[in-house]
Amino acid sequence: MVALVDIRSGRDNGVFAQQQRRRDTLIWLAGQEYSDDVRHRMALSLRMTANVASSVRDAVAEYAATVLVLEWPTAASSRRHGLVDLTHQLVADDTTDLLFVRPDPQSQNQVIAPRSMLASIRGGPSARAVARTAATLADAFGSVLTLLHVQTGSQHPDRARREWQSFEEIVDELNRPATIVTVRRRDAAAPAILEEATGHDLLIIGSRLDPARPSILIGRELDRVLRHLQLPVVMLRVKSANRAAMAGVGATNGHTA
Question: In 3D, which of 35, 40, 252, 48 has the Cα closest to residue 162?
Fold first, then answer.
């Protein structure tokens, strides 16, 4: 874990004292033990920084990180604007896969320990990565995993057929007999995800891949749906898929990669 305490010029001693408390809290968190099977502590790299995005990039390069896990703030988060700005800067780099974690808006400090997960898959460039990530998390937590495929009436039949074939291939490749496979046909995908997510403890989706607007992670319709969704959400942004979209190969729509 890389812990960053933002230091800005022109601040008084009271604010610096607050930053020191945050630093101490991060050290305390890193000292806690995690996992029921193997007791271990989280490794911590603590940095005082005047440029958060630059420090994150340095850490990614220093540790040769392949996945960067970031907080995805809820609409009510007091840190929302700063995190959105940080996300825009890091998405533009396209140097590592990004995994965004949004807590349950009603229980933002609660540990995420899902018994049941829903992964929404359609067939875009990052579909396989989303499915593999969902399977890995399900195995780690001992969760029941459901793969959801939504077909919409607005899709061209050829595209719907390609996405369905891709989905079938992904299910076969995972080779997880315990996985539940659900297929729905609806007028719009986002409401279908909201409907199917009810009763699950975690939703896993892929990000939007739009070459014209690379910093936009989800579409407006899905954003509105997620605001009403009272459960944690994990969103995956795959760098290789983003490159494919930028090259005009297999660009997908907003929410399910």
Answer: 252
